[in-house]
Write a structure and sequence with these properties.
Blueprint: H1 2-10, E1 16-22, H2 26-34, E2 38-49, E3 52-62, H3 63-68
Antiparallel strand pairs: 1-3, 2-3
């Protein structure tokens, strides 16, 4: 995943990378956190899936933040 973010910034010149994660998916949130992404939003009962409402987390990292962690 880190290589994918690095490619987004170095090859494609993106300024920002975001991830939209189901709040119940703790492993995905932990991975985003390990990669240096920060949580920017928590949408409560954002979407109905298989008959129940689920929350959505949005996290992001900027290119300058990504470069600074190296």
């Amino acid at each position: 995943m880190g290589a994918l973010i690095d490619t987004a910034f170095t090859v494609y010149g993106l300024r920002r990378v975001t991830a939209r994660i189901d709040a119940e998916n703790q492993r995905s949130w932990a991975l985003a956190e390990r990669l240096g992404m920060r949580r920017e939003a928590h949408f409560v009962e954002n979407a109905k899936f298989k008959g129940r409402w689920s929350d959505l987390l949005v996290c992001a990292v900027l290119a300058r933040e990504w470069r600074a962690r190296a």
